[in-house]
Amino acid sequence: MGKRKSRSSKLVARPKKAPRLEKVFTCPFCNHPETVRCVIDLELEIAEASCLVCEEAYCTVPDNLTEPIDVYHEWIDECERANQGAAPPPPP
């Protein structure tokens, strides 16, 4: 006869799925929903967020962990700094 299996061997830990992040955003200039697209090209070292309606755009340098939401929020932060009249932070 075989050995009985323990309960712990039946319970296998499954990895949790990460929540999906947005890839399409609202334009901070014209306020059209779902018109800002983010393109990240690590080979050319450029990340661009651009509006399809008013054609405003923002470019930055990405790293390996950069996601489209990071580029968009960096653009929003830059807009807020410009509106407050603050100087941009020095590059790293």
Secondary-structure map:
Blueprint: H1 7-10, E1 24-25, E2 36-41, E3 46-51, E4 57-60, H2 68-84
Antiparallel strand pairs: 1-2, 2-3, 3-4
Overview of the structural elements:
By secondary structure, this protein is α+β, with helices and mostly antiparallel strands. The chain has a domain at 25-84: N-terminal domain of TfIIb. The chain has 2 helices and 4 strands; from the N terminus they run αββββα. The chain has a 4-stranded antiparallel β-sheet, covered by helices on one side. A hairpin with a 5-residue loop joins strand 3 (46-51) and strand 4. The longest helix has 17 residues, at 68-84. The protein is elongated, with a radius of gyration of 22 Å. Keywords: Metal-binding, Nucleus, Transcription, Transcription regulation, Zinc, Zinc-finger.
Q: Widest sheet: strand order?
A: 1-2-3-4
- What is the subunit arrangement here? single chain
> What's the mean pLDDT score?
85
Beta-strand share of residues: 15-25%
**Runs with pLDDT <50, length 5+?**
none
What is the CA-CA span between the terminal residues? Answer: 67 Å
- Count of separate DSSP helical elements: 2
